[in-house]
Design brief:
Length: 780
C-alpha cells in the first residue's frame, strides 16, 4: 500500500479511526440494550422513529490519550491516596480482624474488578483499577510488617516482600495478559530482593556488587522475551561494575584485588553473553572487554605501585592485557556483535594508554624552546641515572604496533596514520626520557627524523605519508632548535638536515607535494646556514644580508634545472630575499645596495621567457634602491624620486604600443605619467616659487599637444588637467586682486549673465559636450 502520508502520521490517523469505530460500537450496543429492555415490557407501544431516551454519553474507551483516560488516572490516584490515608490514619480504630478483613476485601475487589471490565471492552478502566490493586498489595505488605512483624529487620522484610510481590504481580499479569501494567511492575519489584538482602546481611561493597550483578543477570535472561528488562539489566550491571572498579583501584595488595577482579570478570562474561544472544548489543561486549582489562590489570597494579612507583607501568600492563581483545576481529567463530565490541574495547584501552603516555611527549618537545633564550650558550645536560620514561616509551611503541596490525587486518588507512604518529613520538622522545647523553640524543633524533622522511617519500598510502611528513617536519624543527645550544651542533645538524631535504627533493618517485616540502626545507636550511656563517664572522647584522642574497641568486641560476620543485624553491628563495632586505634595514646605504642586488637577481631571472613577470619586481627593487639612496643623500625634491619611475615606465609603454597597436594609452602611458605629474602637482599647490609651476606647465602643455597629435587619450587628458590646475593656481592671486577692486555687485551680475548665456544656448552646449565626449572616446 502506497500513501502520500509519512508512516508516523498514517499510524496516528489509523489509531483515531479505530477509536471512532470503538466508540460507535459501544454506542450501538448501549442502544441495543435499551431497545431490548423496551421490547421485554408488557403492553409496550412502539415509539415513533427518533423517540425514546438517547444515551447522554456512552463511555468511550480508546487506546489514544483522551479526557476519559485522564479522569480514570485521576480516580486511581484518589483511590490510592484514600487507601494510604486509611492505612496510616484510620488503622488504629479497628481490630486485627477488621483490619485484615477490610484490606483483604478491598485488595481482592480491586484485583478482581479488571476481569469483567476487560470482558466489556473497558481496557482503560481495567488498567486504572489494576493499578489501585497493585498499590494495595504494597500497602498490605506494609501493614503486615507494621502489625504482625514490627521487630523484624527492615531490609530483610523488604527483600522478602519485594520477592513475593514480584512473583504475585508476574502471575497476575500472566493471567490477565490484556493488562499492560502488572508485568512491568513485577520486573521493577524484582530489582530489589537481592540488593536489599545484601544490605540486610550488612554486606560490603563487593557483596552488594554481586547482588546487583545477579539481579542484572536475571534481567538479561528475561530481556530475551521482554525487551523492557534490558534497561534495568544495563543499569544494574553498570553500578556493579563501578563498584568493582572502585574496589580494584583501592586494593592495597593482589589478594585484596581478587574479589573485585572476580566481580569484574563475572560482569564481563555477562556482557559478552548478552552480545552473543543479541546482534545489536555490541556495547555490552565493549563494556565486558573493558571490565576484563580492569580486572586483570588491577591484580598487577598494587605490586607495580609498591615496587616501581610509576603509574606508566600500570598503564603498560593494562595495555598488554587489552591487546588480545584486538585479535577478536580475526575470530570468525564469534558473533559479529561480540567481535565488534571486544575489538573496540581493545582500541579504547590502547587509545587511553597512548594518551596517558603521550602526556610526556609535549613537554619534552617544548623543553627545547629554552635554547632560544640564549643561542650558542653551549650547555650540555648531564645524563640521568634513573629513566622514568621507559614505561611510557613502551606504551607508545606497543600501541603503535597494535595500530599498524589493525591497519593491515582491516585494510583501512586510519590505524596506519595513528601507528606512524605513535611510533615517531615514542622513538623521538625515547632518548630524552631514558636519559641519554646530549650527543646520543641528537644522533637518535636525527635518525628518527630521517626515517620519518624516508617513509614520507616512499609511503604508498597518502594518509600514512602525510603523517610521516608532518612528524619529520616537527622532528626536524625540534632538533634544529636544540642544535642552537652550540655552534658546532648548529652547523652539523642543520647541514645534515639540509642535505637530507635536498636529496628528498631530488627523489623522483616520491609524491610531488613531499618533494616540494623537502625543497622548501632545503632552501630554509641553506638560508639558516648562511646566516649562521655570517654570525660567526662577527660582522654587523646589516651585512648578513649579502650572503643571504646568494640563495635567491642560486635559485635564479638553477631555475630550469629544478624540474617539478622549481616553483616552491623560487617561492622559498623569494622569502630569503625578503629576509635579506629586512636584515639590511638598519643602515640606509646597505639597504640601497641590497635592494639593487636583489633587483639584479630578479632582472637575471626575468631574462627567461617564462619568468618575464619577475621584471616588474626588478623594476620596483631598482626604484626602491634609488629612493633609499636619495633619502640617504638628503634629497627632498619629489621629481628625483618620480622621474626614475616615469622614464622606464614610459619606455616599457612605448615598446608595448609598438608590439600591440590596440593597447590602450592608459595601460601603456597612464602609470608612468601619473607617477610624476600627480606628486609634482601637489607640490605646486604648496610652492610659492615660479620655477616648478613653469616647468610643470610646459611639460603638461607638451603632453597635451602630443596627445592631441597622436590621438592618445591618457597624455591628452592628464596633460590638460594638470595644465588647467597649474594655470588656475597661478592666476588665482590676480583674480582675487581684481575681484577685490571691483564693486561687490559686479561678481553676482557677471555670474547671472553667464548663467543666462548658458541657458539660452543650452541645446547647443549639450551637443558640443556630446561631440567632445565622442571625440575623446575615439582616442586610445
Amino acid at each position: 500500500m502506497n500513501t502520500p502520508l509519512p508512516p508516523a502520521e498514517e499510524l496516528a490517523l489509523i489509531d483515531r479511526e479505530l477509536a471512532q469505530l470503538d466508540a460507535r460500537r459501544v454506542h450501538l450496543l448501549a442502544r441495543r440494550d435499551w431497545l431490548l429492555h423496551i421490547l421485554r415490557q408488557p403492553g409496550h407501544v412502539p415509539a415513533p422513529a427518533g423517540w425514546g431516551p438517547v444515551p447522554a454519553g456512552p463511555p468511550k474507551e480508546t487506546s489514544a490519550p483522551s479526557a476519559q483516560n485522564v479522569l480514570l488516572a485521576l480516580g486511581a490516584v484518589l483511590l490510592a491516596v484514600a487507601a494510604l490515608a486509611f492505612t496510616l490514619v484510620s488503622w488504629g480504630s479497628m481490630g486485627i480482624a477488621g483490619r485484615s478483613a477490610v484490606l483483604a476485601a478491598v485488595t481482592a475487589a480491586a484485583l478482581f474488578a479488571p476481569v469483567p471490565l476487560l470482558r466489556r471492552g473497558l481496557g482503560s478502566t481495567a488498567e486504572s483499577v489494576a493499578a489501585v490493586g497493585l498499590l494495595l498489595t504494597v500497602l498490605d505488605a506494609y501493614a503486615l510488617y507494621a502489625v504482625g512483624m514490627p521487630d523484624a529487620d527492615g531490609f530483610g522484610y523488604a527483600a522478602g516482600a519485594a520477592a513475593v510481590l514480584a512473583a504475585g504481580w508476574a502471575g497476575y499479569g500472566s493471567a490477565l495478559r490484556k493488562l499492560r501494567l502488572p508485568l512491568p511492575a513485577a520486573v521493577l519489584a524484582a530489582q530489589f530482593p537481592l540488593p536489599l538482602a545484601a544490605l540486610a546481611a550488612q554486606a560490603g561493597p563487593p557483596e552488594l556488587g554481586w547482588a546487583l550483578l545477579a539481579t542484572a543477570a536475571l534481567d538479561a535472561a528475561l530481556a530475551l522475551r521482554a525487551r523492557a528488562a534490558a534497561v534495568p539489566a544495563a543499569v544494574l550491571t553498570a553500578v556493579a561494575l563501578l563498584i568493582g572498579v572502585a574496589e580494584s583501584w583501592s586494593a592495597g595488595s593482589a589478594g585484596q584485588a581478587l574479589a573485585p577482579a572476580a566481580l569484574l570478570l563475572a560482569g564481563a562474561a555477562l556482557g559478552v553473553a548478552a552480545a552473543w544472544r543479541e546482534p545489536r548489543a555490541w556495547v555490552a561486549a565493549l563494556v565486558g572487554g573493558l571490565a576484563a582489562v580492569v580486572a586483570l590489570g588491577g591484580l598487577a597494579r598494587p605490586g607495580l605501585t609498591d615496587s616501581v612507583g610509576d603509574g606508566a607501568w600500570v598503564v603498560l600492563v593494562h595495555l598488554l592485557v587489552a591487546l588480545p581483545l584486538l585479535a577478536a576481529v580475526r575470530v570468525s567463530a564469534l558473533p559479529a556483535a561480540v567481535r565488534r565490541g571486544l575489538a573496540r574495547a581493545g582500541v579504547a584501552v590502547a587509545a587511553l594508554a597512548a594518551l596517558s603516555a603521550g602526556a610526556a611527549v609535549v613537554p619534552t618537545l617544548l623543553a627545547r624552546l629554552r635554547v632560544l633564550e640564549e643561542v650558542w650558550a653551549v650547555t650540555t645536560p648531564a645524563p640521568t641515572a634513573y629513566a622514568p620514561g621507559a614505561a611510557g616509551v613502551l606504551v607508545l611503541l606497543t600501541a603503535a604496533g597494535a595500530a599498524w596490525w589493525l591497519s593491515r587486518v582491516l585494510a583501512r588507512p586510519e590505524p596506519g596514520v595513528v601507528a606512524v604518529v605513535l611510533a615517531w613520538a615514542g622513538l623521538f622522545t625515547a632518548p630524552v626520557l631514558l636519559g641519554f647523553p646530549a650527543a646520543a640524543v641528537f644522533a637518535a633524533q636525527l635518525a628518527v627524523t630521517g626515517a620519518a622522511g624516508v617513509l614520507a617519500l616512499r609511503s604508498p598510502g597518502r594518509g600514512a605519508g602525510i603523517a610521516a611528513a608532518v612528524c619529520a617536519l616537527v622532528g626536524a624543527a625540534n632538533v634544529s632548535v636544540g642544535a642552537l645550544d652550540g655552534r658546532a651542533a648548529t652547523f652539523a645538524v642543520w647541514g645534515l638536515l639540509g642535505a637530507a631535504c635536498a636529496v628528498g627533493a631530488a627523489y623522483g618517485p616520491a609524491p610531488r607535494w613531499v618533494r616540494a616540502g623537502a625543497a622548501v626545507c632545503a632552501v630554509g636550511y641553506a638560508t639558516g646556514l648562511l646566516v649562521a656563517a655570517a654570525a660567526v664572522t662577527d660582522l654587523a647584522v646589516v651585512w648578513w644580508a649579502l650572503p643571504v642574497l646568494a640563495v635567491p641568486a642560486l635559485a635564479a641560476v638553477l631555475g630550469p634545472r629544478l624540474g617539478g620543485v622549481r616553483v616552491p624553491v623560487e617561492i622559498a628563495a623569494a622569502v630569503a630575499g625578503v629576509l635579506a632586505v629586512a636584515l639590511s634595514a638598519g643602515r640606509t646605504g646597505t639597504l640601497a645596495l641590497v635592494l639593487a642586488l636583489a633587483g639584479v637577481v630578479c632582472a637575471g631571472a626575468a631574462v627567461r621567457p617564462e619568468r618575464r613577470a619577475v621584471g616588474w619586481a626588478a623594476g620596483a627593487l631598482f626604484v626602491a634602491a634609488t629612493w633609499v639612496r636619495l633619502a640617504d643623500a638628503g634629497v627632498t625634491t619629489p621629481e628625483a624620486y618620480t622621474l626614475p619611475v616615469t622614464v622606464p615606465a614610459l619606455v616599457v609603454g612605448f615598446l608595448r604600443r609598438r608590439r600591440d597597436a590596440e593597447a590602450s594609452s592608459w595601460t601603456a602611458y597612464g602609470p608612468g605619467l601619473a607617477a610624476t605629474l600627480l606628486p609634482s602637482l601637489l607640490m605646486v599647490l604648496e610652492d610659492r616659487d615660479w620655477v616648478r609651476p613653469l616647468l610643470l606647465g610646459l611639460a603638461a602643455l607638451a603632453l597635451t599637444l602630443i596627445g592631441a597629435r597622436r590621438r592618445l587619450q591618457a597624455p591628452l587628458l592628464l596633460g590638460g588637467a594638470v595644465l588647467a590646475v597649474v594655470a588656475v593656481h597661478e592666476l588665482a592671486p590676480y583674480v582675487v586682486q581684481v575681484a577685490g577692486a571691483l564693486p561687490r555687485w559686479v561678481p553676482p551680475a557677471l555670474a547671472g549673465l553667464l548663467l543666462l548665456a548658458v541657458g539660452a544656448t543650452y541645446e547647443k552646449r549639450l551637443r558640443d559636450a556630446r561631440r567632445l565626449r565622442d571625440v575623446i572616446g575615439r582616442l586610445r
